[in-house]
Amino acid sequence: MMYRVFRRALDAAISAAMAVAEIAMALMMLHVVLQIAMRGIFRISIDSVPEIVAFYYMAGMIFLSFAYVTREDGHISASLFTDMLPRRANELLQGLIFVVLAIGMGLFAWETLHEAIRMTRIGEFHQGASINLPKWPTRWFAPIGCGLMALSALVLALDKIVGRPVGMTPSAVTHAAKG
Predict the structure, then answer these.
(1) How does pLDDT run across 26-46, given as a tens digit for each residue?
(2) How far is it, in rounded angstroms, from Cα 79 to Cα 97?
(3) Torsion angle of alpha carbons 19, 137, 32, 65, nearest 10°?
(4) Which residue, of 1, 46, 53, 77, has the greatest Cβ tally within 10 A?
(5) Going by C-beta distance under 8 Å and a sequence separation of 6 or more, which residues neighbour residue 63?
(6) Number of folded domains in the chain?
(7) In terms of residue numbers, what domain contains 111?
């Protein structure tokens, strides 16, 4: 019961983070196209486009999509040797790998959280040609994205170790438990 509630909440958070990452990608494309069109047609350049793209859009796209890729078990893997293992041994090995991934990303989330807090406190900004661009909000993408990835890896590890099919939605977990 508690696992299903946790899994539902985690899935909702991961989906929300992915939606923000998708919005960032769309805004980035629109912003860059607008910049190119304005420069080509009117010979006017929009201030700080490279900085906004790098600090906001790209950081959001990358970090906030981590957990989604992990949840969908979409990481690149070289399975040349592990495919020769018996199915259960392969699942246990993958579970162990996900535990290591969860620990690593949890540590990275913890460290970047401290940096985000510090930069928020001092009000970090980037001085553009004509504007001061607040940079501290973008510092939160890393701890949020890495924290969600760590939790997602932990769920996958648990699924692999107990032999539950990976990628089961909370409703599928409920159905499998009843059946």
Answers:
(1) 999 999 999 999 999 999 988
(2) 13
(3) -30
(4) 53
(5) 141, 142, 144, 145, 146
(6) 1
(7) 2-178
